[in-house]
Amino acid sequence: MNIVKTVADLRAAVARARGEGKRIGFVPTMGNLHAGHIALVKKAGQRADFVVASIFVNPLQFGPNEDLDSYPRTLAADQEKLVDAGCQLLFAPNVAEMYPHGQANQTLVHVPGVSEGLCGASRPGHFDGVSTVVSKLFNMVQPDLAVFGQKDFQQLAVIRTMVRDLNMPVQIISEPIVRAEDGLALSSRNGYLSAEERARAPALYRTLNDLRNAIAGGERDYPALVARGLAQLSQAGLRPDYLEVRNAVDLQPADAASREVAILAAAFLGKTRLLDNVLVETGADTH
Ligand code: PAF
Fold first, then answer.
1. Ligand 1 centre and the CA of 9: distance in Å?
2. CA spacing 20 to 30 A to 42: which of 7, 105, 175, 237?
3. Phi first, then psi: what are they for 224, rounded to 5°?
4. How far is CA 210 from each of CA 110, 202, 219, 244, rounded to the nearest angstrom?
5. Atom 5 of ligand 1, residue of closest alpha carbon
């Protein structure tokens, strides 16, 4: 695997692959790779001939009191995992390479609508940071396709909307959430949990699963289901940030016409913010 740290070297390496007629697949990450990331890299390898991954802990998407400084940086271990997963090129820039004119002067990409509410409400500016860095990375790599995980379901919707609205010639592919045996969605932030918190953490998925079963069983009183889920989370010792039932396509609040709904939640365990979602078909015949 070739490792590059500058945009110039990245462009040269991608141009060589393209010159050989290869289709370029891209997986942007912030590193500290786990099985969820590896599934994205492998999916890119199935759909493209040349896989590029990036590792960049993007300061623009962290709020002032968030975990930018403590976010795990494990480049050496990540490199080995990428090689095993079949990645051919790793782009690992530093902040100066990504924001040479400073973050304060950076042109921002703002995606209205889908970036509001849910994580957008709790983390002001977060999705502007994500859509800005992803559009920069897309312009640098110019991939044919890019693969994102469904765990960040709202992020996926923001990126799909950005690509559509800005006519970016990139196919967006999503991969299902990878979970630990007890159901906890894999996340780099799980490493912040103490042993006691880690034991409680699967309650988030259990709660989402209970709501999914209720909806699959015909319950449609979404506010009542949300109230039940919030109580369940609190009883399990989690501090809910939000729990919502949304239309899976446009992330608008779910209603009787929603054919597929996403049940989305974020909850704190101590200082760690866990994020998860499940999807459920309702059988509605419109929308
Ligand atoms: O999902 C992530 O890891 C990040 O938000 C992304 C897409 C790499 C942008 O920094």
1. 22
2. 7
3. -65, -40
4. 35, 12, 11, 14
5. 130
Active site annotation includes 126: no
> Domain range spanning residue 159?
2-175
Is residue 31 located within the same domain as residue 65?
A: yes
Q: Output the tens digit of pLDDT for each of the chain's 287 residues.
A: 999 999 999 999 999 999 999 999 999 999 999 999 999 999 999 999 999 999 999 999 999 999 999 999 999 999 999 999 999 999 999 999 999 999 999 999 999 999 999 999 999 999 999 999 999 999 999 999 999 999 999 999 999 999 999 999 999 999 999 999 999 999 999 999 999 999 999 999 999 999 999 999 999 999 999 999 999 999 999 999 999 999 999 999 999 899 999 999 999 999 999 999 999 999 887 54
- Reading the block at residue 274, the tokens are 């866990």
Q: Among 119, 148, 175, identify where a domain stops.
A: 175
CATH of the domain at 252: 3.30.1300.10
- Mutate which of 127, 133, 190 to test ligand 1's pocket (most atoms within 8 Å of Cβ)? 133
234 in the same domain as 141? no
Pocket test for ligand 1, best of 32, 37, 91, 155 (most atoms within 8 A of CB): 155
Same structural domain, 159 and 229: no
Ligand 1 binding pocket (C-beta < 6 A) is 28-30, 58, 61, 130, 133-134, 152, 155
Look at ligand 1, atom 2, and give the residue with the nearest C-alpha. 29
Is 287 inside a domain boundary?
A: no
Whether 138 is covered by a domain: the verdict is yes
Query: Three-state DSSP class for 131?
Result: helix
23 and 143 in one domain? Answer: yes
Catalytic residue (one of 37, 101, 126, 287): 37
Based on the structure, what is the number of domains in the chain?
2
User: Can you tell me the distance from the alpha carbon of 71 to that of 273, in angstroms, rounded to the nearest whole number?
Assistant: 13
